[in-house]
Specification:
The chain has five helices and seven strands; from the N terminus they run αββαβββααβαβ. It is of the alpha/beta class. It has one domain. It is globular.
């Protein structure tokens, strides 16, 4: 069991640490230049719920975009580890505590129509960002790719959104990296595998933070 069914509190991994940092040390999650974050999820008030599909739009006050989402992504899409608001726009959050999480499985959609839609959206995003066409976003670092694609889609809808990757340092329970430098190497490897140029249209809207869990260790 990963979470307490009564409270939604997680027992281990990135889910546990994100919940704890949001409650006790939110400043450690705020990237430089983005300002303080007003967290929508995960918070105790809603039993640390995580949002998916149109629910994430409603949670961020973007419910008016929900009718357009099915033209971009089929149901059963990204489950966001966290959501927040900043003075610069809404923030989508993906959290990791160990490196293996970064090497996600290829796209698992089985319905041909769903795979075709996902493939078309990922391709459009990759092309718009000037990614190397030899990179297969359906297979390589798929989770990172689809998170970037959601950020891209929001920008196409006129929303100045941001994407925040929270990579926790020092989670020995999960055999996670002991330094931020290791995570930075993983981040560079993912960008390289996706064929992304060093600078692209969304570079300024993608952020990385590396909180050390020792700050909140029991």
């Amino acid at each position: 069991m990963r979470t307490d069914p009564a409270t939604g509190r997680a027992f281990r991994g990135s889910q546990k640490w994100l919940q704890r940092f949001v409650e006790a040390a939110p400043a450690a999650l705020a990237p430089e230049g983005l300002g303080p974050l007003d967290w929508v999820s995960p918070v105790a008030a809603n039993r640390f719920s995580e949002y998916q599909d149109a629910a994430f739009l409603h949670a961020l006050g973007l419910g008016h975009l929900a009718p357009a989402l099915p033209d971009f992504w089929p149901r059963g899409g990204a489950v966001w580890d966290g959501l927040a608001q900043s003075v610069q726009g809404p923030v989508l959050v993906e959290a990791k505590a160990h490196i293996q999480e970064s090497f996600s499985s290829p796209c698992g959609a089985k319905a041909p129509a769903s795979r075709a839609l996902i493939g078309a959206s990922l391709t459009a995003c990759a092309q718009d960002l000037g990614a190397d066409p030899r990179s297969d976003w359906m297979r390589c670092h798929y989770q990172t790719a689809n998170r970037i694609a959601h950020l891209w889609w929001l920008h196409r809808q006129g929303v100045t959104a941001h994407l925040l990757f929270v990579h926790f340092v020092g989670d020995t329970d999960m055999t996670g990296p002991a330094s931020a430098e290791t995570w930075r190497a993983v981040e560079k490897a993912a960008a390289y595998a996706l064929g992304l140029p060093t600078r692209h249209a969304l570079s300024c809207y993608i952020h990385h933070v590396h909180p050390d869990v020792a700050l909140l260790a029991d």
